[in-house]
Design goal:
This protein is of the alpha/beta class. 30% of the residues lie in helices and 19% in strands. The strands form three sheets. Strands 7, 8, 9, 10, 11, 12, 13 and 14 form an eight-stranded mixed sheet that branches. The protein has a four-stranded antiparallel sheet with strand order 2-5-1-6, sandwiched between helices. Strands 3-4 form a two-stranded antiparallel sheet. α9 packs across α10. Bound molecules: S-adenosylmethionine.
């Protein structure tokens, strides 16, 4: 028997165990009776989706369909696509927010870009994707990511000619999803980490033709996103704020670079404040009438709903910006065959891991600037 090399140096309480203790304590209360099944899924192998790269000349979609995959975005449960959603009011911290679409009027579900395609193996099928291969121009045919990570970019609802900001963009899965729409006039990509911004550039060069990566189309920066307001305000039609978080899955499965390690306790405790500052910066960067998507990959209410609630309150109090929460409930109906969504969240929507559909966690909440 080979002795495990790290046996003597392994910490008594590895970060993954600390993460599990923390989640057991908080999520058993927050999620109640669904926590045991979410827990078992989180501790099991995750499922991927393949985002189809429209810029590649390979017919990746056809090849993957032959293997039994389906594009979950176009292949939906049509009976679930109803336009008649009741409007509801969400009340918190003295702020009344209409949980409805434009100006409180009901409208049909978002016009989701038909250019975004993401294929998955059927429910319960945990076949792994093969790595994508380069086409004759060196571009890869698909990008492997948690299929639920496609939802924030999809629901951001980018329209032709929009100026878009991706405030925390690296390594670039959601950026690639936004680019598939082929509708963006100008895209600002930012990530405070220089090394991760380099990774983002590599990803872009592996998927997007050079002629789309020019200074006329795109700007890539490594600023502290919380300071974005000092640079640009009231500018963008769409803003994605995909913040750093406790990355619940990673924290449970990998001791390396784990935010539950003892040395990162202060950083972890500061996350909600950083998330709030990033979201407020994203709100300021959007133009009046513009829309902001806040997203995380944690189940934590403190990093999700609480951050959004505080941002709505502070945007109004300190900056005079009124916001409306955009109802995404129709999206959860549309994709209920593919994902498990948390039931009855009072603010935003969340994909919760499930053994038969082991995607997520992904939380998303969309805001519209009224002023
Ligand atoms: N959107 C990315 C994607 O889909 O591939 C993932 C983003 S990841 C969840 C969060 C990112 O926020 C990290 O890359 C991290 O470097 C970046 N970040 C952390 N603090 C930041 C800050 N103050 N300003 C901008 N980016 C920050």
């Amino acid at each position: 028997r080979v002795k495990e090399k790290w046996a003597t140096t392994r910490p008594k309480h590895p970060p993954t165990s600390l993460a599990l203790q923390h989640f057991d304590a908080t999520y058993s209360v927050q999620l109640g009776q669904i926590w045991p099944s979410v827990r078992v899924a989180l501790l099991s192998e995750r499922k991927y989706g393949a985002l189809i790269n429209n810029f590649s000349s390979d017919s990746a979609l056809g090849n993957l369909q032959v293997q039994g995959c389906r594009d979950f975005i176009s292949d939906t449960d049509t009976e679930a696509q109803s336009c008649s959603q009741p409007e509801s009011e969400v009340d918190f911290s003295d702020v009344s927010v209409k949980n409805s679409d434009v100006d409180g009027q009901q409208r049909c579900p978002l016009q989701l870009s038909s250019n975004i395609k993401c294929v998955v193996f059927p429910r319960g099928d945990i076949t792994r994707f093969k790595p994508a291969r380069p086409d004759r121009y060196g571009l890869l045919g698909y990008y492997l990511m948690d299929a639920a990570s496609v939802l924030p970019s999809l629901a951001l609802d980018v329209q032709e000619g929009h100026n878009v900001l991706d405030l925390c963009a690296a390594p670039g899965g959601k950026t690639l999803t936004l680019l598939q729409t082929q509708a963006i006039r100008f895209l600002c990509l930012n990530d405070s980490s220089v090394s991760r911004t380099l990774r983002l550039r590599k990803v872009l060069h592996s998927y997007i033709p050079k002629e789309h990566l020019t200074d006329e189309n795109m700007r890539i920066t490594s600023f502290d996103g919380t300071k974005w307001g000092d640079i640009e305000r009231n500018t963008f039609d769409r803003v994605l704020v995909d913040v750093p978080c406790t990355t619940d899955r990673h924290s449970l499965l990998e001791d390396d670079n784990n935010i539950f390690s003892k040395g990162r306790t202060a950083e972890r405790r500061r996350l909600p404040q950083l998330q709030l500052e990033l979201l407020l910066a994203g709100i300021e960067a959007a133009c009046p009438g513009g829309e902001i998507m806040y997203s995380t990959c944690t189940l934590s209410q403190i990093q999700n709903q609480s951050v959004v609630e505080q941002a709505i309150y502070l945007a109004q109090e300190n900056r005079g910006i009124r916001l409306e929460v955009v109802n995404l409930r129709h999206l959860t109906h549309k994709f209920k065959k593919t994902f498990h969504f948390a039931p009855d969240l009072h603010l935003g929507e969340m994909v919760v891991p499930h053994l038969a559909a082991n995607f997520g966690p992904i939380y998303m909440c969309k805001l519209k600037r009224l002023t």
